[in-house]
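Cross-check.
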Amino acid sequence: WPIQTSCSEALLASLNYLMVKKDSRTKLINSIHDEIWIETDASMVSQEAYMLFSCMQQGFQKYIKTVKFDGEIKIIERT
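Predicted model, tokenized:
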């Protein structure tokens, strides 16, 4: 239970950082368990992917200090 609660709080913190730092053209699409999905212009994909990773890292390190954050970014081109 403590781990599940910590992860939930960490994800909420990550979303908070994201909403403050994201470009106005980037949209939050979905958030499920340990995933955050965003949509952005093709010209900003690398920049926003790095920003998202950074926000998730900050959010998780705020609550889970003893475990190194390890995440991955998947970029999917919408057709």
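The two ends are 40 Å apart (CA to CA). The CA atoms of residues 22 and 48 lie 7 Å apart. Passed to J.P. for a second look.
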